Amino acid sequence: MNAEEFRAFCINLPFVTESFPFDDTTLVFKVGGKMFALIDVEQAISANLKYDPERAIELREKFNAVNPGYHMNKQHWNTITFNEDVSNDLLKELILHSYELIYSSLPKKLKNELEMG
Fold first, then answer.
1. Would you say 50 and 79 are in contact if contact means Cβ atoms under 8 Å apart?
2. Is residue 19, in this structure, part of any structural domain at all?
3. Residue 115 domain-assigned?
4. What does the pLDDT look like over 79-115, one tens digit per residue?
5. Nearest residue to 83 (alpha-carbon basis) of 47, 117, 114, 57
6. Are 47 and 2 in contact, with CB atoms under 8 Å apart?
7. Cα separation, 56 vs 86, whole angstroms
8. CA 32, 63, 71: angle at the middle one, nearest 5?
9. CA-CA distance, 112 to 114, in Å (whole number)?
10. CA 69, 37, 9, 3 torsion-angle sign
11. 42 DSSP 8-state letter
12. Using CA atoms, how far apart are residues 37 and 24, in angstroms rounded to an integer?
């Protein structure tokens, strides 16, 4: 997966916004104002995604391409290197898991506001 494919998948999820809050190269994807994915658009060799702590460890043990989140809370975030042992289909599942983890944690009022648009 490349940066354009990663971005297209993320931005097509419901209620997702994108911005560069940290610098000119780190593209951040949020739902309800909370981050679920980050990618460096200049290097575009990996992305950071959020997981529950047990799933984060499980993925690190199973895949060489999954490591503790670079510059992130290592308990909850993983960095996934593209084009190693994680297929594009699995990467999409991992993006979706990160998105759903964040969306499900949003307050009901905020979810209703997003859904009413």
1. no
2. yes
3. no
4. 999 988 999 999 999 999 999 999 999 999 999 999 9
5. 47
6. no
7. 14
8. 50
9. 5
10. negative
11. T
12. 16
